[in-house]
Amino acid sequence: MRWNLTYVDDISGEYKFVGFKRSTYKHAEFSVSGDCYTEEILDNYRVKFVFGEEEMKIPKVTLLAKKKALYEGHPLCMVISGDRYSVEDRLEEVDVDYREVNGPLFPEIPDNVIYSKSHGRKGEAETSMSLHLRAGRSSPAPMEPRVIAVRFTGDSILVHASTQAPTVARILIAEMLDVPMHRVKVDVPNVGGGFGAKQDLSYEELSVVALAYELGENLKWVETRSEHVQNSQARDQVHLVEVGFTKEGKLEFLHDDITYDTGAFPLAWSGISPLFVTLSTMTSAYSFDFSYNVKAVLSNKPPQGAYRGFGRPEAVFVMERVMDEISRRTGIDQIEVRRKNLRNLDDVGDVKSVLEEIERKYKEFKEIYGKGVGLAFYVQYAGPNSKLMIEKEKSRIPGYDCVRAYLDLDGWVVIKISATNQGQGMDRAIKNLVSKELGYEKVRVLLGDNEVKGYGVWASRTMLTMGNAAVIAARQLKEKVSTLGDWEEVSKMMLTQPWKVMDVSADACYETEDFVGTVSGQISVVRGDCTGVKVERHFIVADVGVSGDEEIVKGQLMGGALQGIGGVLYENANDGVEFAVPTSMEAPTFEVKLFHTPSRTPTGVRGVGENGPTGAYASLCNAIRDLGLECNSFPFPRGERS
After folding, report:
1. b/e map of 548-587 (b: 16 or more CB within 10 Å)?
2. Which of 116, 251, 394, 526 is the most buried (most CB within 10 A)?
3. Which domain of life is it from (predicted)?
4. CA-to-CA distance for 411 and 212, rounded, in angstroms?
């Protein structure tokens, strides 16, 4: 069989190409001279935020920098040319004069704080400690950077985009252009990886759409690798933690002073939502009194967006460093400390078996290696529903997804979903679930459909929402067909005996009643010293519920864990063009153990997409700590000894 994989950059058509002249200063007033489109031509286009603004100070964000650059790499203006190579020449011809400035980024927010909140009061305990923990910036760095192509067909605006959420992109574009949604179609072929970065439409992508609409030109932008690393960044939190615990290893209280570095301004969709996910994840596994002071601040860095895990890895990193230190300071076994502090966990899988498996593997590794062994225990929650998204998070994006299923005239069952393919194999997994439900193999899944309501690939939700909706729709199809004959017979009847049946189709929507949890653990084995560390072994255990495709699930867990390893040892957004990601040469020997306790959803599935990185940062830093080195921040600062 021949596979033709088409990505956005492969789509043919007559386009002019766009390039961005970017600031070389972190904070400077500027003036541009040369043939370049500045903010003035786009001044009438405004991006509406998806997240709630009630408790936040939202700055007035423009598509391009307006008179003042706010970070190095901030787009100042746009050039257009006939091909990508001449675009670079045109950019060289544009001159920029800078005058460095100090002070707040936006005059309406003089202290640069856009959000602050306090919760609870610091407790008391017989023993206490403090930890200064930092999650540094990385970049999702997918195989394919951002690509967007805009063309006009009659009265319609056709946008080819490499995006995780075409329906949300459609909403943002229609609102920005002030046109009805039916005039906007967002087409997404294969996506060469997203990892959260392509959840948001960047301001560059939206600028291309706005300029194309303003000029009536077909325009295309292909982001370079260096542009992506410089401008698509995430994970920037500092936690000043005070912990109270007993000599028996019971965590009594945890107080956290958290600073979330938003960058120059929030992105239209993700906003500061990773911070809220961090806060909710802090108490996901253990029982203790939690209090915090939190603030989100603006800085002269690129806007922080989504990266796989979306605030979960930062929380688990904090909690598992705390658990590791309580074990060390009390002399109580690492597993026992975690077992003592478990909260009542409901519908997360087989907690007892997962803990026993972690304990077995941890003892095995300690016997073999002695030092350099670290673990993380956690619960990854997935699938936020509409009530949570709209009422609590004040988002305009709901938590449900819909599916359209129908029997085609050739006997194939077709499942239409809005999710895009980023390499996760979700189409194959959903096909497997539907085929099993129907007892019929001729099933195909069509991705990226604009006409079914659905809100994209994020929060490990695709199988929970679209997978369950697909099976519900399949059950309805099966019921209709069962009274008429088998699948092949009924498909022929739609042509030969339409008076008996003209159409066999079903529409179904689904969202979870509550978060669905996946109880999990990871163990890292490292070798090295302050001059360098290498991961040799890595073990993952998770109760994933019913899996649509077990090998894909294992691959998701290993790939996500390798991203966490990269985030600790290799990936540093400050490295610019020297930014490095781990390859197969740096990957450890992986071992994965799965349990399959069904969730309380129609299919019994659980979310796993963000599970891998969620635990890997913590287990790896605890392994480095077991070597006698400090690992209270990542990327790992070499040269520090405890």
Report:
1. bbeebbbbbbbbbbbbbbbbbbbbbbeeeeebebbeeeeb
2. 526
3. Archaea
4. 42
Structure tokens at 133: 């923990």
Instruction: Give the model confidence (pLDDT) of 232-268 as tens digits.
Output: 999 999 999 999 999 999 999 999 999 999 999 999 9
Compute the mean pLDDT over every residue in the chain, rounded to the nearest whole number: 95
Given a contact cutoff of 8 angstroms between Cβ atoms, the answer to whether 517 and 407 are in contact is no
Task: Return the percent helix, strand and coil in the chain, to nearest 5.
Answer: 30, 25, 40
Q: Which two tokens stand for residue 409?
A: 């005239």
| 3 state DSSP class of 428 | helix
Residue type, 207: S
pTM of the predicted protein model: 0.96
- The pLDDT of 336-362, averaged and rounded, is 97
Residue 177 makes CB contacts below 8 A (sequence gap 6+) with 45, 157, 184, 209, 210, 213
Per-residue pLDDT band at 577 (split at 50, 70, 90): confident
From the CA atom positions of the chain, what is the Rg in Å? 25
Query: Is residue 640 over pLDDT 50?
Result: no
- Residue 119: CB atoms within 10 A of its CB come to 12
Q: Which domains are seen in the chain, by residue range?
A: 344-382+515-641 (3.30.365.10), 400-510 (3.30.365.10)
What burial class does residue 203 get, using C-beta atoms within 10 Å of its C-beta: 0-12 exposed, 13-18 middle, 19+ buried? Answer: buried
Specify the 3-state DSSP secondary structure of 261: strand
pLDDT at 639: 42
Tell me which residue of 521, 500, 399 sits closest to 453, measured CA to CA.
Answer: 399
The amino acid sitting at 289 is D
Q: Is the pLDDT of residue 2 over 80?
A: no
Torsion of CA 512, 513, 517, 518, to 10 degrees: -40
Residue 260 · residue 135 · CB < 8 Å? no
How confident is the model over 46-95, as pLDDT tens digits? 999 998 778 899 999 999 999 999 999 999 999 999 999 999 999 999 99
